Every structure is written in structure tokens, then in C-alpha cells.
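Researcher: Next entry in the queue.
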Amino acid sequence: MIPRIALLTLLTGIFLEPPLARGAETPNFIVIFCDDLGYGDIGPFGSELHRTPNLDRMAKDGMKFTHFYSTCGVCSPSRASLMTGAYPKRIGMHQNEKGQWVLFPGNNQGLNPSEITIAEVLKEKGYATACVGKWHLGDQPPFLPTKQGFDSYFGIPFSNDMGRTDRPKPYQYPPLPFLENDKVIEEEPDQHFLTKRYTEKAVEFIRENKDSPFFLYLPHTMPHWPQYSSPQFAGRSANGAWGDTVEEIDWSTGQILDLLDELNLSENTLIVFTSDNGGAMNHGAINKPLSGAKGSTMEGGQRVCMVTQWKGKIPAGSECAELSSTLDILPTFAALAGTDPPQDRVLDGKDITPLLMQKDGAKSEYEAFYYYKRGNLEAVRSGSWKLHLPATKQKNNDRSHYRLYDVVSDPGELENVVTEKESIVARLKELAEKARTDLGDDFTKAEGSRLRPPGIVENGVTLTDGAN
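Model: Structure for this entry, 468 residues:
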């Protein structure tokens, strides 16, 4: 029998706190997160090779951010920041337990369940939450999306090259698993249809939750290597397999935009389209006019294309050149949903609502943005200035090993003005020291004062046991 006090509490909850109903001030959120998409791979950012009419339409109806960053040049660290609003170094997700950049099948590390994700913040406000696509924040049971605030999950838990497709024998990895929630429902799925399957599941989720607030996280597998497209797109672009995947992702985005219009949800849904890091140019990506590529701390490694739309709220056809990043998604969504981001821990992101709405005088709140490669602080940006730092402590006072660029006027990082701007160099060096004190720096052996550990399980196992 339920005790009387407990029963009254239960009934009070039932009658006073019903499921959150649709309201004008409870927007839906959709994040479309590509894998390795280049800064210049889509029409709104200058692509002439790839046909992206739906993203062109989205930019026409919304806003593009031209100085938007991921926090790392590779997958797992950047995704950890998106989910938590914290630098990867702060939460122990800058590398795996073996010192590798990203997580691999069977690693015993993942996003700590004690971290609070976007999904968990929004669930507290009654949102339905779904993750559809590539997760890559740990494949052990405690680290899967359904343990990190998502009501459902449908997709692959890590990169699509971490299986047997296009891999010679003896196989390096077990068969690539495809999950529904926390169960493997398939091994080595036909990758030609991944984007199509993700899109169908995303559409299904939106339809099922059209009458109440929802958060859809759609992290595409593509255009990461190996690139595969469905027959409708394969071999149709002007840029080989890479371009085919980009054009299919554009189609997928169009399916979602059309559905929101059909369901009269476009004026109550904020959509963010971006990438986990810069493009892999060796596989066909276009990062122009930026320097560098995936894996680097040059602009092309971490500055990513970003298009956002919220009809009637975000000014149509607008552009934002203020510095912002994936760190900002969590605090911004929290604010727009009428709640607060976690208050019991350090977050690094900012609420960029004023930038989205083009409020008068809205400026970036970043004093500095830090570029880490694994645990190494390699560069710092403040305002338009970016200072690349020496690789070792011994070179720390040798000015010839610093490089300074104005990445607004010189996005290709071509003109090093370090000898001409001594006061700016000195200021950015001070900001770098702040990062080393706070986040640490393996180069200089600085430990960092406000760090949190990753999640660790004792014995990592692969999701497809027994595979050789």
C-alpha cells in the first residue's frame, strides 16, 4: 500500500504537473550535426560544386554564422562539447584512455553520466528527446544516448570506418553495430542507406511529438569516410562520393524543413545546422577560404559552417560574424526553453540568443576562445586576433615560434604579424595562461584547476561480442 503522504504527493504531481503542452513560448529544437563537413561545402558558404537548395532556402529564411567554432578538429571531443557546453579538456573528453583523439569500439571511457547534457536540461522541462545518427561519446552501456537524457536512440555508436566496410582482413574492428535504443539490431548495415534511414526516423519522431515540445539531435554519419549515398544521389554530384553525401544531407534537411511547414511548426522550431569539425580535404571537403583541415587547430580545422532558422524570430536572410561556438548551444537552448543551464559546475558556453535575434548592440561574450589538440593548447583567439602558441615550454619566450593572424581579414592565416603587434601578442599570451591555469596544458605540464573526469567502466566490451 502506498503511504498517504506519498499518495498525495503522487496525485499532486499528476494533477498540477501534466505533460508540457504546446505553447508559443516553448520552442522545439533540432540540431543537424554533420561529420567532417567543410566550411565551404554548402551553398550559403560559397560552394559551387555542391547543390544545396534546401540549405540555401534555410539561410534565406534564417541566419548564417560565419565565425562559429567547434572545440576540436575531430569527432568525440567536439561532440562532448556540444552536449555539455564545456571544453573537452574540462570534462576529460579530449582523448581516450590510450591517448588517442577519439573513442574506439570497446574503449572503457565515455561521456561521464554525471555530466548534464542538453537532452537532460530539456527533459526537465517536459521535452521529448531523440538522438538519431552517430553518437561517438562512448559505446559502453552507461554512456549510450538513452543513459544521457535521450528517450530514444537510432544509429551507430561511433564512426562508420570503425567496422568492416572497406576494411581488409584481418579485421581491425568487430562488425559495425546499428542500435535502436541500447540494443544492437543489425551488424554492418548497408551504409548507402544510412542518411535515408536517419531521415525517416527523424521525420517519424517529429510527427509523433508534433503536439508537445521536442528536441531532435540528428548527427549524420556522412560525409565522413567511407562515403556512401543512396541510389538517388550516388554518382550525381560534381564532386564524387563526397559531394553525393553532401547533396543527400541537403535533401534530408529539406525533408525536415518541409515537414515543419506542413505541421505548422516552422514558427515554433529553432533549427541549427553545423558540423562537428572542419572538412577532411583529403576526402573531398572544401574549407575555402580557411586554412587547414580536419584535425588541425588552423581555422579550417575548427571554424565550421552554421546555418540556423526560426521563422518569425530569427531575421530572414541575416548573417552573424560574432565569435560563437557549439559550446553555446546548451545555454542558449536552456534560456529559450525557460530554464537555466547547470549551476553546480563550470560551463564554457554563452547564451547567444541576442545574436540570434540580432538585438541592438549584441556582441560575442567570449573574452577568448581556446584551440586544443588533445591536451595541448595550440592557439587562442580574442576578438579578431588569433595567436598560435609554441609547441614546447622551451620555446615559450622565443617570438619566432609564435604566429599572429587577424582571422577576420585574413581567414587563410597567410600574413603573420607577430612582430608588428607586440601589445596584442602580450594580451593573448596572458589569456593563454588563464587557460592553462583553468583547463591545463600538456605542453607546459599545467594541470588545470577546474577539471572533471570522464566516465570510466572497469572492462570495456564490444557491442558485437565474439566477432573476430
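Model: The first helix runs from residue 4 to 16.
Researcher: Noted, moving on.
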